[in-house]
Write a structure and sequence with these properties.
InterPro entries: Transposase_36. This protein is extended. A two-stranded antiparallel sheet has the order 1-2. It has a domain at 39-70. The N and C termini lie far apart (42 Å). By secondary structure, the protein is α+β, with helices and mostly antiparallel strands. Helix content is 27%, strand content 9%.
Length: 70
């Protein structure tokens, strides 16, 4: 059960792949302004390199450092 942020952090940090890769995580203790928007330039760059999954795109996405063909 994820009863606190520290439990979630420990759970994530215990993640390992079959080839031995591990996850580094940290908790950001910050307050973020609601309603901020990104610039059109950032949005263009983001759309070129990041593709969000159609089912659950907030969590599932692909990043291609070479960019996706339009």
């Amino acid at each position: 059960m994820l009863d606190c942020p520290q439990t979630a952090l420990r759970t994530v940090e215990q993640t390992r792949t079959q080839t031995g890769l591990s996850v580094t995580a940290r908790i950001l203790d910050a307050t973020y302004e609601i309603g901020r928007t990104c610039s059109d330039t950032f949005r263009d760059v983001k759309d070129r390199f990041i593709r969000h999954d159609c089912v659950n795109g907030q969590w599932n996405y692909l990043v291609d450092p070479n960019g996706f063909a339009c």
